Amino acid sequence: MGKSKKDQNTDTRSLVDLVFSWSIRDVLDENFYRNQVKRIPETFVTVTSYKKSFIPSLVEETHADLLSNMLTLSNAPTCEILTIVDSDGPPNNDLSYDILYKRDTETDENLKGLMYEPQVGDIIALTTVRPKCIDDLNRPPRFYHIAYVSKANDIDEFPDDLQFKILSSKPINYGEPDTQTSTREPLFAVCLMNLTTNVRVWKALKSKEGNTKIITKVLKPKSDDGDSCSVCSFKGTCCTGVSAIWPTICSENLNESQEAAVLNCIGLSQCHHQNSVNLIWGPPGTGKTKTMSLSLFALFQLKCRTLTCAPTNIAVLEVAKRLRTLVNQSLECGTYGLGDIVLFGNKKRMKIDDNKNLRDIFLDYRVKTLNKCLVPLSGWKHLLESMIRLLDDPVEQYSLYLEKRANNHKQNSQKNEDDTKHSEDEDYPSTFEEFVKKKFDSLCEPLKICMVDMYTHLPTSCISLNVVKDMVGALGFLKSIKSSIHTIGVANQGFTLVLKDIKVPGSIVGFLTQLRTKCTNTLKNVPINEYALRNFCLENACLIFCTASTSAKLHSVEGPRPLELLVIDEAAQLKECESAIPLQLSGLRHAILVGDERQLPAMVQSKISSKADFGRSLFERLAKLGHKKHLLNVQYRMHPSISLFPK
Fold first, then answer.
1. CB neighbours (10 Å) of residue 536?
2. In contact, 66 and 29? CB cutoff 8 Å
3. Which pTM does this prediction carry?
Protein backbone atom coordinates (compact mmCIF):
# COMPACT_ATOMS: atom_id res chain seq x y z
CA MET A 1 0.00 0.00 0.00
CA GLY A 2 1.31 3.47 -0.85
CA LYS A 3 2.01 5.91 1.93
CA SER A 4 1.72 9.64 1.33
CA LYS A 5 4.04 12.13 3.01
CA LYS A 6 1.02 13.65 4.70
CA ASP A 7 0.14 10.34 6.32
CA GLN A 8 3.59 9.76 7.73
CA ASN A 9 4.88 13.27 8.44
CA THR A 10 5.96 13.29 12.09
CA ASP A 11 7.63 16.68 12.17
CA THR A 12 4.72 19.12 12.36
CA ARG A 13 1.77 17.13 13.69
CA SER A 14 0.79 16.43 17.27
CA LEU A 15 0.73 12.74 18.12
CA VAL A 16 -3.07 12.82 18.42
CA ASP A 17 -3.37 14.38 14.95
CA LEU A 18 -1.06 11.72 13.58
CA VAL A 19 -3.20 8.92 15.02
CA PHE A 20 -6.30 10.65 13.62
CA SER A 21 -4.71 10.62 10.15
CA TRP A 22 -4.46 6.81 10.03
CA SER A 23 -7.16 5.03 8.11
CA ILE A 24 -8.21 1.60 9.30
CA ARG A 25 -6.05 0.11 6.51
CA ASP A 26 -3.08 2.11 7.80
CA VAL A 27 -3.60 0.78 11.31
CA LEU A 28 -3.81 -2.82 10.10
CA ASP A 29 -0.61 -2.51 8.07
CA GLU A 30 2.08 -3.72 10.47
CA ASN A 31 4.84 -2.42 8.16
CA PHE A 32 3.37 1.05 7.83
CA TYR A 33 6.39 2.77 9.45
CA ARG A 34 9.08 0.14 8.83
CA ASN A 35 11.11 2.31 6.42
CA GLN A 36 11.15 5.30 8.78
CA VAL A 37 12.41 3.59 11.93
CA LYS A 38 16.19 3.53 12.31
CA ARG A 39 18.35 2.16 15.08
CA ILE A 40 18.77 4.65 17.91
CA PRO A 41 22.46 5.59 18.31
CA GLU A 42 24.44 5.26 21.53
CA THR A 43 26.16 8.64 21.18
CA PHE A 44 24.80 11.96 19.95
CA VAL A 45 26.19 15.29 18.83
CA THR A 46 23.37 17.63 19.89
CA VAL A 47 20.35 17.60 22.19
CA THR A 48 18.10 18.12 19.16
CA SER A 49 19.44 15.04 17.36
CA TYR A 50 19.20 13.07 20.62
CA LYS A 51 15.50 13.79 21.12
CA LYS A 52 14.65 13.50 17.44
CA SER A 53 16.14 10.00 17.19
CA PHE A 54 13.36 8.52 19.37
CA ILE A 55 10.38 9.96 17.50
CA PRO A 56 10.02 7.42 14.64
CA SER A 57 10.17 4.51 17.08
CA LEU A 58 7.64 6.22 19.35
CA VAL A 59 5.22 6.63 16.45
CA GLU A 60 5.74 3.01 15.37
CA GLU A 61 5.19 1.82 18.95
CA THR A 62 1.95 3.81 19.13
CA HIS A 63 0.86 2.31 15.82
CA ALA A 64 1.70 -1.23 16.99
CA ASP A 65 -0.17 -0.74 20.26
CA LEU A 66 -3.28 0.40 18.43
CA LEU A 67 -3.02 -2.52 15.99
CA SER A 68 -2.67 -5.01 18.86
CA ASN A 69 -5.81 -3.69 20.54
CA MET A 70 -7.69 -3.81 17.24
CA LEU A 71 -6.98 -7.52 17.01
CA THR A 72 -8.65 -8.12 20.39
CA LEU A 73 -11.56 -5.77 19.78
CA SER A 74 -14.22 -8.09 21.18
CA ASN A 75 -12.67 -7.61 24.62
CA ALA A 76 -12.54 -3.81 24.40
CA PRO A 77 -14.43 -1.85 27.12
CA THR A 78 -17.54 -0.24 25.63
CA CYS A 79 -20.23 2.18 26.77
CA GLU A 80 -23.40 3.45 25.14
CA ILE A 81 -23.58 7.15 24.30
CA LEU A 82 -26.78 8.97 25.27
CA THR A 83 -26.17 12.51 24.01
CA ILE A 84 -23.53 14.43 22.06
CA VAL A 85 -23.42 18.24 22.02
CA ASP A 86 -20.92 20.76 20.70
CA SER A 87 -18.43 21.78 23.36
CA ASP A 88 -16.67 25.04 24.09
CA GLY A 89 -13.34 23.75 22.85
CA PRO A 90 -10.12 25.58 21.97
CA PRO A 91 -10.40 28.60 19.63
CA ASN A 92 -11.16 27.70 16.01
CA ASN A 93 -11.85 24.10 16.99
CA ASP A 94 -15.32 22.86 16.08
CA LEU A 95 -14.50 19.18 16.68
CA SER A 96 -14.81 19.24 20.47
CA TYR A 97 -17.89 17.56 21.94
CA ASP A 98 -19.45 16.89 25.34
CA ILE A 99 -20.78 13.35 25.73
CA LEU A 100 -23.23 11.90 28.23
CA TYR A 101 -22.96 8.13 28.46
CA LYS A 102 -24.86 5.27 30.02
CA ARG A 103 -23.41 3.29 32.87
CA ASP A 104 -23.95 -0.26 31.70
CA THR A 105 -25.65 -2.45 34.28
CA GLU A 106 -26.13 -5.48 32.07
CA THR A 107 -25.17 -8.81 33.55
CA ASP A 108 -24.65 -10.57 30.25
CA GLU A 109 -21.65 -12.85 30.76
CA ASN A 110 -20.21 -11.71 27.43
CA LEU A 111 -20.15 -8.09 28.64
CA LYS A 112 -19.10 -8.74 32.22
CA GLY A 113 -16.15 -6.59 33.23
CA LEU A 114 -16.26 -4.54 30.01
CA MET A 115 -18.01 -1.50 31.47
CA TYR A 116 -16.12 1.44 30.07
CA GLU A 117 -15.19 4.35 32.32
CA PRO A 118 -13.57 6.96 30.04
CA GLN A 119 -10.13 8.21 31.07
CA VAL A 120 -8.25 11.24 29.81
CA GLY A 121 -5.95 10.16 26.99
CA ASP A 122 -8.15 7.33 25.71
CA ILE A 123 -8.45 6.83 21.97
CA ILE A 124 -12.02 5.70 21.33
CA ALA A 125 -13.89 4.50 18.26
CA LEU A 126 -17.47 5.59 17.69
CA THR A 127 -19.65 2.77 16.34
CA THR A 128 -23.32 1.92 15.89
CA VAL A 129 -22.92 -1.60 17.32
CA ARG A 130 -20.99 -3.24 20.09
CA PRO A 131 -17.98 -4.40 18.04
CA LYS A 132 -17.03 -8.05 17.84
CA CYS A 133 -14.56 -7.68 15.01
CA ILE A 134 -12.63 -5.00 13.12
CA ASP A 135 -15.27 -4.82 10.39
CA ASP A 136 -17.75 -3.48 12.97
CA LEU A 137 -15.65 -0.29 13.18
CA ASN A 138 -15.97 0.42 9.49
CA ARG A 139 -19.54 -0.29 8.43
CA PRO A 140 -22.12 2.09 6.96
CA PRO A 141 -23.47 4.54 7.83
CA ARG A 142 -20.64 5.33 10.29
CA PHE A 143 -17.23 4.46 8.89
CA TYR A 144 -14.01 4.32 10.95
CA HIS A 145 -14.29 7.30 13.29
CA ILE A 146 -12.03 7.83 16.29
CA ALA A 147 -11.73 10.50 18.98
CA TYR A 148 -9.47 11.49 21.88
CA VAL A 149 -10.85 11.83 25.44
CA SER A 150 -9.67 15.25 26.63
CA LYS A 151 -11.60 15.39 29.92
CA ALA A 152 -13.44 12.83 32.06
CA ASN A 153 -15.12 12.78 35.45
CA ASP A 154 -14.16 10.28 38.12
CA ILE A 155 -17.34 8.22 38.54
CA ASP A 156 -16.35 7.31 42.11
CA GLU A 157 -16.55 11.00 43.02
CA PHE A 158 -19.31 11.97 40.58
CA PRO A 159 -21.42 8.80 40.19
CA ASP A 160 -24.35 10.73 38.72
CA ASP A 161 -22.31 12.85 36.33
CA LEU A 162 -21.40 10.41 33.57
CA GLN A 163 -19.86 12.85 31.13
CA PHE A 164 -16.65 13.20 29.21
CA LYS A 165 -15.25 15.54 26.59
CA ILE A 166 -13.69 14.44 23.32
CA LEU A 167 -11.68 15.86 20.46
CA SER A 168 -13.04 14.16 17.36
CA SER A 169 -11.11 13.23 14.23
CA LYS A 170 -13.99 14.51 12.10
CA PRO A 171 -17.41 16.15 12.56
CA ILE A 172 -20.04 14.09 14.36
CA ASN A 173 -23.56 14.01 13.03
CA TYR A 174 -25.52 12.22 15.72
CA GLY A 175 -28.79 12.71 13.84
CA GLU A 176 -32.33 13.41 14.95
CA PRO A 177 -34.68 10.78 16.43
CA ASP A 178 -36.80 8.88 13.96
CA THR A 179 -40.16 10.67 13.66
CA GLN A 180 -42.14 7.44 13.74
CA THR A 181 -40.38 5.61 16.55
CA SER A 182 -38.94 8.64 18.41
CA THR A 183 -35.69 6.74 18.67
CA ARG A 184 -32.20 7.55 17.51
CA GLU A 185 -29.69 5.08 16.15
CA PRO A 186 -27.56 3.66 19.00
CA LEU A 187 -24.00 4.91 19.33
CA PHE A 188 -21.18 3.31 21.31
CA ALA A 189 -17.75 4.44 22.48
CA VAL A 190 -15.14 1.67 22.28
CA CYS A 191 -11.81 2.14 24.07
CA LEU A 192 -8.92 1.25 21.75
CA MET A 193 -5.91 2.42 23.79
CA ASN A 194 -4.68 5.08 26.18
CA LEU A 195 -2.31 7.59 24.64
CA THR A 196 -1.35 9.58 27.76
CA THR A 197 2.22 8.38 28.27
CA ASN A 198 3.00 8.48 24.55
CA VAL A 199 1.69 12.05 24.28
CA ARG A 200 3.82 13.10 27.25
CA VAL A 201 6.92 11.52 25.74
CA TRP A 202 6.12 13.14 22.39
CA LYS A 203 5.89 16.58 24.02
CA ALA A 204 9.15 16.02 25.91
CA LEU A 205 10.94 15.06 22.71
CA LYS A 206 9.43 17.96 20.77
CA SER A 207 9.98 20.58 23.49
CA LYS A 208 12.41 23.39 22.75
CA GLU A 209 12.02 25.15 26.10
CA GLY A 210 12.90 22.50 28.69
CA ASN A 211 15.98 22.31 30.89
CA THR A 212 18.58 20.44 28.81
CA LYS A 213 21.55 20.65 31.19
CA ILE A 214 21.37 17.05 32.37
CA ILE A 215 20.58 15.68 28.90
CA THR A 216 23.61 17.56 27.58
CA LYS A 217 25.62 15.88 30.34
CA VAL A 218 24.78 12.38 29.14
CA LEU A 219 25.26 12.89 25.41
CA LYS A 220 28.99 12.24 25.36
CA PRO A 221 30.58 9.03 26.68
CA LYS A 222 32.91 8.87 29.66
CA SER A 223 32.16 12.26 31.16
CA ASP A 224 34.91 12.79 33.70
CA ASP A 225 33.70 15.54 36.02
CA GLY A 226 31.42 15.24 38.98
CA ASP A 227 33.27 13.09 41.51
CA SER A 228 35.58 15.86 42.62
CA CYS A 229 32.57 18.13 42.90
CA SER A 230 30.82 15.70 45.25
CA VAL A 231 33.92 15.36 47.43
CA CYS A 232 34.33 19.13 47.53
CA SER A 233 30.72 19.71 48.50
CA PHE A 234 30.69 16.96 51.09
CA LYS A 235 33.56 18.53 53.02
CA GLY A 236 31.36 21.51 53.73
CA THR A 237 28.38 19.35 54.65
CA CYS A 238 29.87 16.99 57.20
CA CYS A 239 29.80 19.37 60.12
CA THR A 240 26.32 20.80 59.49
CA GLY A 241 23.17 18.92 58.45
CA VAL A 242 24.65 15.43 58.21
CA SER A 243 25.72 15.12 61.84
CA ALA A 244 22.09 15.26 63.02
CA ILE A 245 20.82 12.54 60.68
CA TRP A 246 23.82 10.26 60.47
CA PRO A 247 22.94 8.22 63.60
CA THR A 248 19.60 7.26 61.99
CA ILE A 249 21.36 6.23 58.78
CA CYS A 250 24.01 4.23 60.67
CA SER A 251 21.31 2.40 62.64
CA GLU A 252 20.17 0.74 59.39
CA ASN A 253 23.40 -1.33 59.22
CA LEU A 254 24.54 -0.25 55.78
CA ASN A 255 27.51 -1.92 54.22
CA GLU A 256 30.43 0.18 53.02
CA SER A 257 29.24 0.65 49.44
CA GLN A 258 25.67 1.52 50.51
CA GLU A 259 27.02 4.08 52.95
CA ALA A 260 29.18 5.57 50.19
CA ALA A 261 26.10 5.86 47.94
CA VAL A 262 24.14 7.73 50.61
CA LEU A 263 27.06 10.10 51.21
CA ASN A 264 27.33 10.74 47.48
CA CYS A 265 23.65 11.73 47.32
CA ILE A 266 24.18 14.12 50.21
CA GLY A 267 27.19 15.55 48.44
CA LEU A 268 25.18 16.14 45.27
CA SER A 269 22.54 18.03 47.22
CA GLN A 270 25.20 20.56 48.20
CA CYS A 271 26.63 20.99 44.69
CA HIS A 272 25.40 24.13 42.94
CA HIS A 273 28.10 24.82 40.36
CA GLN A 274 27.74 21.93 37.91
CA ASN A 275 25.44 19.14 36.76
CA SER A 276 25.96 15.41 37.07
CA VAL A 277 24.33 12.03 36.49
CA ASN A 278 25.23 9.16 38.84
CA LEU A 279 24.38 5.48 38.67
CA ILE A 280 23.58 3.27 41.63
CA TRP A 281 24.02 -0.16 40.14
CA GLY A 282 23.18 -3.46 41.82
CA PRO A 283 21.42 -6.77 41.12
CA PRO A 284 18.37 -7.83 43.16
CA GLY A 285 19.19 -8.28 46.84
CA THR A 286 21.98 -5.72 47.01
CA GLY A 287 19.87 -3.19 48.90
CA LYS A 288 19.17 -0.62 46.19
CA THR A 289 15.76 0.33 47.57
CA LYS A 290 17.09 0.50 51.13
CA THR A 291 20.00 2.67 50.01
CA MET A 292 17.73 4.95 48.05
CA SER A 293 15.23 5.28 50.91
CA LEU A 294 17.96 6.35 53.31
CA SER A 295 19.35 8.75 50.72
CA LEU A 296 15.90 10.30 50.33
CA PHE A 297 15.56 10.50 54.12
CA ALA A 298 18.83 12.44 54.25
CA LEU A 299 17.66 14.75 51.46
CA PHE A 300 14.37 15.25 53.32
CA GLN A 301 16.22 16.31 56.46
CA LEU A 302 18.46 18.63 54.43
CA LYS A 303 15.40 20.20 52.72
CA CYS A 304 16.74 19.38 49.25
CA ARG A 305 13.83 19.48 46.81
CA THR A 306 13.89 16.05 45.17
CA LEU A 307 11.69 14.25 42.66
CA THR A 308 11.62 10.45 42.86
CA CYS A 309 10.30 8.64 39.78
CA ALA A 310 9.93 5.06 38.61
CA PRO A 311 8.45 3.33 35.55
CA THR A 312 5.50 1.86 37.47
CA ASN A 313 3.15 2.78 40.31
CA ILE A 314 4.24 -0.32 42.24
CA ALA A 315 7.87 0.81 42.31
CA VAL A 316 6.91 4.36 43.31
CA LEU A 317 4.69 3.12 46.15
CA GLU A 318 7.42 0.81 47.50
CA VAL A 319 9.95 3.63 47.83
CA ALA A 320 7.35 6.01 49.28
CA LYS A 321 6.36 3.43 51.91
CA ARG A 322 9.95 2.92 53.05
CA LEU A 323 10.61 6.64 53.19
CA ARG A 324 7.39 7.24 55.14
CA THR A 325 8.46 4.66 57.73
CA LEU A 326 11.84 6.36 58.21
CA VAL A 327 10.26 9.81 58.45
CA ASN A 328 7.67 8.65 61.00
CA GLN A 329 10.47 7.70 63.37
CA SER A 330 12.07 11.15 63.12
CA LEU A 331 9.12 13.54 63.41
CA GLU A 332 9.52 15.84 66.38
CA CYS A 333 5.91 16.90 66.91
CA GLY A 334 3.17 14.46 65.95
CA THR A 335 2.72 14.30 62.18
CA TYR A 336 4.23 17.74 61.56
CA GLY A 337 6.60 17.43 58.61
CA LEU A 338 4.56 15.08 56.42
CA GLY A 339 3.41 18.14 54.48
CA ASP A 340 6.88 18.24 52.92
CA ILE A 341 6.25 14.88 51.20
CA VAL A 342 3.86 14.49 48.27
CA LEU A 343 2.83 11.36 46.39
CA PHE A 344 0.65 11.95 43.36
CA GLY A 345 -0.80 10.06 40.43
CA ASN A 346 -3.88 8.01 39.56
CA LYS A 347 -5.64 7.06 42.80
CA LYS A 348 -7.26 3.95 41.36
CA ARG A 349 -4.10 2.58 39.78
CA MET A 350 -2.09 3.34 42.90
CA LYS A 351 -4.83 1.76 45.04
CA ILE A 352 -4.41 4.46 47.66
CA ASP A 353 -7.55 3.33 49.48
CA ASP A 354 -5.71 0.05 50.17
CA ASN A 355 -2.53 1.88 51.31
CA LYS A 356 -3.77 3.91 54.27
CA ASN A 357 -0.24 4.59 55.50
CA LEU A 358 0.34 6.55 52.27
CA ARG A 359 -2.95 8.42 52.28
CA ASP A 360 -1.59 11.30 54.38
CA ILE A 361 0.99 12.11 51.72
CA PHE A 362 -1.25 11.53 48.68
CA LEU A 363 -1.90 14.83 46.92
CA ASP A 364 -5.62 14.43 46.13
CA TYR A 365 -6.42 13.47 49.72
CA ARG A 366 -4.25 16.31 51.05
CA VAL A 367 -5.92 18.95 48.89
CA LYS A 368 -9.43 17.91 49.92
CA THR A 369 -8.45 17.75 53.58
CA LEU A 370 -6.84 21.20 53.58
CA ASN A 371 -9.72 22.67 51.64
CA LYS A 372 -12.14 21.57 54.38
CA CYS A 373 -9.89 23.13 57.02
CA LEU A 374 -9.60 26.46 55.22
CA VAL A 375 -13.17 27.17 54.08
CA PRO A 376 -14.38 30.35 55.86
CA LEU A 377 -17.79 29.23 57.17
CA SER A 378 -16.86 25.85 58.66
CA GLY A 379 -13.07 25.60 58.78
CA TRP A 380 -10.49 26.12 61.52
CA LYS A 381 -11.02 29.88 61.82
CA HIS A 382 -14.78 29.61 62.30
CA LEU A 383 -14.36 26.79 64.85
CA LEU A 384 -11.63 28.59 66.80
CA GLU A 385 -13.56 31.88 66.92
CA SER A 386 -16.70 30.04 68.06
CA MET A 387 -14.69 28.29 70.81
CA ILE A 388 -13.18 31.59 71.96
CA ARG A 389 -16.65 33.20 72.20
CA LEU A 390 -17.97 30.25 74.20
CA LEU A 391 -15.08 30.24 76.65
CA ASP A 392 -15.00 34.04 76.94
CA ASP A 393 -18.69 34.52 77.81
CA PRO A 394 -20.75 31.32 78.01
CA VAL A 395 -23.68 33.20 79.57
CA GLU A 396 -24.00 35.48 76.55
CA GLN A 397 -23.76 32.49 74.19
CA TYR A 398 -26.51 30.76 76.17
CA SER A 399 -28.69 33.88 75.92
CA LEU A 400 -28.15 34.01 72.17
CA TYR A 401 -29.09 30.35 71.98
CA LEU A 402 -32.36 30.94 73.86
CA GLU A 403 -33.15 33.99 71.72
CA LYS A 404 -32.51 32.11 68.48
CA ARG A 405 -34.55 29.16 69.69
CA ALA A 406 -37.48 31.40 70.61
CA ASN A 407 -37.45 33.03 67.17
CA ASN A 408 -37.34 29.64 65.43
CA HIS A 409 -40.10 28.37 67.67
CA LYS A 410 -42.29 31.38 66.85
CA GLN A 411 -41.78 30.92 63.12
CA ASN A 412 -42.61 27.22 63.34
CA SER A 413 -45.76 27.97 65.36
CA GLN A 414 -47.01 30.39 62.75
CA LYS A 415 -46.49 27.82 60.00
CA ASN A 416 -48.28 25.02 61.78
CA GLU A 417 -50.32 25.93 64.86
CA ASP A 418 -51.64 22.39 65.24
CA ASP A 419 -48.15 21.03 65.96
CA THR A 420 -47.16 23.71 68.48
CA LYS A 421 -47.62 21.59 71.59
CA HIS A 422 -45.77 18.68 70.00
CA SER A 423 -42.91 21.01 69.02
CA GLU A 424 -42.68 22.37 72.59
CA ASP A 425 -42.46 18.90 74.04
CA GLU A 426 -39.85 17.77 71.51
CA ASP A 427 -37.64 20.89 71.57
CA TYR A 428 -37.58 21.67 75.25
CA PRO A 429 -34.71 24.18 75.76
CA SER A 430 -31.40 22.92 77.15
CA THR A 431 -30.28 24.05 80.56
CA PHE A 432 -27.18 26.24 80.80
CA GLU A 433 -25.08 23.22 81.77
CA GLU A 434 -26.47 21.09 78.96
CA PHE A 435 -25.91 23.89 76.46
CA VAL A 436 -22.27 24.42 77.49
CA LYS A 437 -21.45 20.72 77.27
CA LYS A 438 -23.16 20.23 73.90
CA LYS A 439 -21.71 23.40 72.41
CA PHE A 440 -18.20 22.64 73.65
CA ASP A 441 -18.33 19.06 72.34
CA SER A 442 -19.66 20.19 68.94
CA LEU A 443 -16.67 22.53 68.55
CA CYS A 444 -13.87 20.63 70.28
CA GLU A 445 -13.65 17.50 68.12
CA PRO A 446 -13.85 19.18 64.69
CA LEU A 447 -11.40 21.85 65.88
CA LYS A 448 -8.98 19.11 66.93
CA ILE A 449 -9.35 17.41 63.53
CA CYS A 450 -8.75 20.72 61.74
CA MET A 451 -5.64 21.56 63.79
CA VAL A 452 -4.07 18.11 63.29
CA ASP A 453 -4.93 18.10 59.59
CA MET A 454 -3.38 21.52 59.10
CA TYR A 455 -0.02 20.77 60.68
CA THR A 456 0.01 17.32 59.05
CA HIS A 457 -0.64 18.50 55.50
CA LEU A 458 0.79 22.02 55.31
CA PRO A 459 4.42 22.29 54.17
CA THR A 460 6.79 23.24 56.97
CA SER A 461 7.83 26.29 54.95
CA CYS A 462 4.48 27.93 55.70
CA ILE A 463 3.82 26.81 59.28
CA SER A 464 6.55 26.92 61.92
CA LEU A 465 7.25 24.36 64.61
CA ASN A 466 6.46 26.97 67.31
CA VAL A 467 2.97 27.53 65.91
CA VAL A 468 2.43 23.76 65.76
CA LYS A 469 3.53 23.41 69.38
CA ASP A 470 1.00 26.09 70.32
CA MET A 471 -1.67 24.12 68.44
CA VAL A 472 -0.76 20.94 70.29
CA GLY A 473 -0.80 22.86 73.58
CA ALA A 474 -4.23 24.32 72.82
CA LEU A 475 -5.60 20.87 72.04
CA GLY A 476 -4.23 19.63 75.36
CA PHE A 477 -5.94 22.46 77.24
CA LEU A 478 -9.25 21.83 75.47
CA LYS A 479 -9.02 18.14 76.31
CA SER A 480 -8.60 19.03 80.00
CA ILE A 481 -11.60 21.37 79.87
CA LYS A 482 -13.73 18.70 78.24
CA SER A 483 -12.79 16.19 80.90
CA SER A 484 -13.63 18.67 83.68
CA ILE A 485 -17.01 19.84 82.41
CA HIS A 486 -18.14 16.24 81.97
CA THR A 487 -16.97 15.30 85.45
CA ILE A 488 -18.29 18.22 87.51
CA GLY A 489 -21.26 20.57 87.20
CA VAL A 490 -20.76 23.80 85.28
CA ALA A 491 -23.95 25.63 86.18
CA ASN A 492 -23.68 29.30 87.15
CA GLN A 493 -20.02 30.01 88.04
CA GLY A 494 -18.86 26.42 87.64
CA PHE A 495 -17.62 26.91 84.10
CA THR A 496 -15.52 29.93 85.12
CA LEU A 497 -13.90 27.87 87.89
CA VAL A 498 -13.10 25.09 85.42
CA LEU A 499 -11.29 27.57 83.15
CA LYS A 500 -9.30 28.97 86.05
CA ASP A 501 -8.10 25.49 86.98
CA ILE A 502 -6.50 25.06 83.53
CA LYS A 503 -2.85 26.09 83.93
CA VAL A 504 -2.41 28.46 81.02
CA PRO A 505 -0.12 31.51 80.95
CA GLY A 506 -2.62 34.41 81.19
CA SER A 507 -5.93 32.75 80.33
CA ILE A 508 -7.19 30.08 78.00
CA VAL A 509 -9.16 32.71 76.04
CA GLY A 510 -6.06 34.88 75.67
CA PHE A 511 -3.99 31.88 74.62
CA LEU A 512 -6.51 30.83 71.95
CA THR A 513 -6.83 34.44 70.74
CA GLN A 514 -3.06 34.64 70.27
CA LEU A 515 -3.11 31.29 68.47
CA ARG A 516 -5.83 32.58 66.14
CA THR A 517 -3.68 35.60 65.28
CA LYS A 518 -0.58 33.46 64.70
CA CYS A 519 -2.48 31.04 62.48
CA THR A 520 -4.10 33.86 60.51
CA ASN A 521 -0.72 35.43 59.82
CA THR A 522 0.79 32.03 58.98
CA LEU A 523 -1.94 30.97 56.57
CA LYS A 524 -2.57 34.29 54.82
CA ASN A 525 -0.70 33.09 51.70
CA VAL A 526 -2.31 29.64 51.57
CA PRO A 527 -4.94 29.47 48.78
CA ILE A 528 -8.49 28.33 49.54
CA ASN A 529 -9.58 26.70 46.27
CA GLU A 530 -8.63 23.13 45.39
CA TYR A 531 -6.84 23.88 42.12
CA ALA A 532 -4.56 26.50 43.68
CA LEU A 533 -4.01 24.29 46.76
CA ARG A 534 -2.83 21.47 44.51
CA ASN A 535 -0.13 23.62 42.96
CA PHE A 536 0.73 25.13 46.35
CA CYS A 537 1.41 21.69 47.85
CA LEU A 538 3.58 20.67 44.89
CA GLU A 539 5.46 23.98 44.81
CA ASN A 540 6.39 23.78 48.49
CA ALA A 541 7.02 20.04 48.89
CA CYS A 542 10.51 18.80 49.68
CA LEU A 543 10.10 15.24 48.34
CA ILE A 544 7.77 14.39 45.45
CA PHE A 545 6.95 10.84 44.33
CA CYS A 546 5.29 9.89 41.02
CA THR A 547 5.86 7.84 37.89
CA ALA A 548 8.16 9.24 35.21
CA SER A 549 5.16 9.76 32.94
CA THR A 550 3.15 11.63 35.59
CA SER A 551 6.08 13.97 36.23
CA ALA A 552 4.98 15.75 33.03
CA LYS A 553 2.45 17.59 35.22
CA LEU A 554 5.28 19.23 37.14
CA HIS A 555 6.41 21.19 34.07
CA SER A 556 3.54 23.63 34.70
CA VAL A 557 4.31 24.01 38.43
CA GLU A 558 6.56 26.92 39.37
CA GLY A 559 7.44 27.18 43.04
CA PRO A 560 9.63 29.44 45.16
CA ARG A 561 12.43 26.88 44.79
CA PRO A 562 12.94 24.62 41.76
CA LEU A 563 13.48 20.90 42.08
CA GLU A 564 17.20 20.23 42.50
CA LEU A 565 17.62 16.47 42.36
CA LEU A 566 16.00 13.69 40.35
CA VAL A 567 16.10 10.07 41.54
CA ILE A 568 14.85 7.36 39.16
CA ASP A 569 14.25 3.96 40.73
CA GLU A 570 14.17 0.84 38.52
CA ALA A 571 15.88 3.06 35.94
CA ALA A 572 16.88 0.08 33.79
CA GLN A 573 13.17 -0.65 33.25
CA LEU A 574 12.40 2.85 31.96
CA LYS A 575 12.61 3.65 28.25
CA GLU A 576 15.24 6.30 27.64
CA CYS A 577 12.79 8.52 25.78
CA GLU A 578 10.42 8.42 28.77
CA SER A 579 13.19 9.55 31.12
CA ALA A 580 13.35 12.73 29.01
CA ILE A 581 10.12 13.87 30.72
CA PRO A 582 11.55 14.39 34.24
CA LEU A 583 15.11 15.13 33.06
CA GLN A 584 13.94 18.41 31.49
CA LEU A 585 12.22 19.84 34.58
CA SER A 586 13.15 23.43 35.25
CA GLY A 587 16.02 23.99 37.68
CA LEU A 588 17.03 20.33 37.93
CA ARG A 589 20.78 20.06 38.60
CA HIS A 590 21.53 16.37 39.24
CA ALA A 591 20.10 12.95 38.46
CA ILE A 592 20.65 9.61 40.21
CA LEU A 593 19.67 6.47 38.29
CA VAL A 594 19.13 3.34 40.36
CA GLY A 595 18.90 -0.09 38.76
CA ASP A 596 20.59 -3.02 37.04
CA GLU A 597 20.90 -3.03 33.26
CA ARG A 598 21.16 -6.84 33.28
CA GLN A 599 17.46 -7.11 34.10
CA LEU A 600 14.88 -7.35 31.33
CA PRO A 601 14.34 -4.01 29.57
CA ALA A 602 11.05 -2.17 29.25
CA MET A 603 8.40 -3.99 27.23
CA VAL A 604 8.09 -2.89 23.61
CA GLN A 605 5.03 -3.86 21.55
CA SER A 606 6.54 -3.34 18.09
CA LYS A 607 9.19 -5.72 16.75
CA ILE A 608 10.38 -2.91 14.49
CA SER A 609 10.87 -0.54 17.45
CA SER A 610 12.46 -3.31 19.48
CA LYS A 611 15.12 -3.87 16.82
CA ALA A 612 15.74 -0.12 16.80
CA ASP A 613 16.62 -0.34 20.54
CA PHE A 614 13.54 1.65 21.56
CA GLY A 615 13.28 -0.31 24.81
CA ARG A 616 16.80 0.63 25.92
CA SER A 617 17.09 2.66 29.11
CA LEU A 618 19.32 5.63 29.79
CA PHE A 619 20.82 3.58 32.61
CA GLU A 620 21.86 0.83 30.19
CA ARG A 621 23.32 3.24 27.65
CA LEU A 622 25.43 5.07 30.24
CA ALA A 623 26.65 1.79 31.71
CA LYS A 624 27.70 0.55 28.25
CA LEU A 625 29.51 3.80 27.54
CA GLY A 626 31.60 3.29 30.64
CA HIS A 627 30.43 6.11 32.86
CA LYS A 628 32.51 4.64 35.64
CA LYS A 629 32.86 7.93 37.47
CA HIS A 630 29.09 8.15 37.77
CA LEU A 631 28.80 4.55 38.93
CA LEU A 632 28.35 3.98 42.66
CA ASN A 633 29.28 0.37 43.17
CA VAL A 634 26.64 -0.81 45.65
CA GLN A 635 28.45 -4.04 46.42
CA TYR A 636 27.02 -6.84 48.51
CA ARG A 637 28.52 -10.30 48.98
CA MET A 638 26.07 -13.18 49.19
CA HIS A 639 29.04 -15.40 50.08
CA PRO A 640 32.56 -14.36 51.13
CA SER A 641 34.01 -15.72 47.89
CA ILE A 642 31.35 -14.45 45.47
CA SER A 643 30.98 -10.81 44.44
CA LEU A 644 27.81 -9.82 42.62
CA PHE A 645 29.69 -7.07 40.81
CA PRO A 646 32.54 -7.45 38.35
CA LYS A 647 35.68 -5.54 39.04
1. 20
2. no
3. 0.87
